[in-house]
Amino acid sequence: MKMEKHKLKSYIKSQAHNLGFDAVRIVSPDAIPEAAPRLRHFLAQNYHGDMEWLATHESRRKSPLALWADVKSIIMLGVNYGPKGNPLDRLACKMTGNISVYARGRDYHHIIKKKLKQLAHQISKESTAQLKVFVDTAPILEKPLAAAAGLGWQGKHTNLVSRDFGSWLFIGSIFTTAKLAPDRQEEDYCGTCRACLDICPSNAFPKAYQLDARRCISYLTIEAKHQVPLEFRSLIGNRIYGCDDCLAVCPWNKYAKATRETKLRTRAALRKPALADLAKLDDAAFRALFAASPIKRTGRDRFVRNVLIALGNAGKQEAVPHIKARLCDNAPLVRGMAVWALAQYKNADEMKSLAQAALPSESDMNVRAEWERYI
Fold it and tell me: What is the 3-state secondary structure (H, E, C) of 147-173?
């Protein structure tokens, strides 16, 4: 005998907490009518940069009903991935790489999707409703849905903020044909605070509640396929994968706590990874180190490009041999950034001499352009 509808919601929340979800709320699929025009403005301003999929699937993102017409309720779930310390403290360690908190452990996609499937299985035993699970892979506006469900609110940095977990919630969702009573939306508690806007190294927020991804260090070090524009390189510091500044500075983190999910905790190899070691990674070594990490998706060439930016910003002569070793790398993306990184340690005459020697044998136009800066 299937469970009565009025009991199903309480059952879902109980089972979700048993499976390790830290927050669970219900939202109606028509609860975010303002999300579509916001997305349209974001795309019209070209704030999405290289993330073409945002524009490609715009029509499906505008409403959960565009993705699945039969959905009646959406179960929004959060898993706390809070760090033990303040991520901003690592920015001072110039010869080590700073990796965004979310990518220091195992790939959250796999961890959360497994939990979602387990929860969906439990629900299916008690209900005849159809279910579909999603975690950051389908064209869903997850943050607006999470805010409408009451998991938190979208702060001025556009990320989700929780009164219980601060900035550190991974979001997953279960779409269902079951009609469940929606929970109350959370209020916006940002008030007059501007901490997240003011700390951004690259001024990526045109105004509160708007993000220009093309200026965001997370975008530049993860999504951008091209060479990082010159104006941003020195601003990146030692951030080799993502940036947590706007998240970490939020005052609501005073209520945050370290994650209880062991697989999301920082791996020993990524606590203070030496830039010198990371610069040496070939494709096989990169894949081995990041086999179960979201970093693997970015690929070795983009990752080592980021490492070279960090070495260029380190201001330590010990970085120079590791930069020079990458001037002959097989990847143009790496060679080009090695040129810039080396220029942070050489004077104009030295760079001119090196450029004159390198240009005749350099076939890639982008790498040639990097050298030509110093002729």
Answer: HHHCCCEECCCCCEEECCCECCEEEEE
Cβ(24)–Cβ(17) below 8 Å = yes
Cβ atoms of 67 and 60 closer than 8 Å: yes
Strands 23-27 and 73-80: antiparallel
3-state secondary structure of 199: helix
Catalytic residue (one of 30, 70, 89, 136): 136
pLDDT of residue 36: 87
- How many CA atoms does the CB half-sphere of 197 hold within 13 Å? 14
The torsion angle over the Cα atoms of residues 147, 172, 111 and 83, rounded to 10 degrees, is -10
pLDDT, tens only, 89-111? 999 999 999 999 999 999 999 99
pTM over 0.90, yes/no: yes
Q: Is 136 a catalytic residue?
A: yes
Do 73 and 180 meet the contact criterion of CB atoms below 8 Å apart?
A: yes
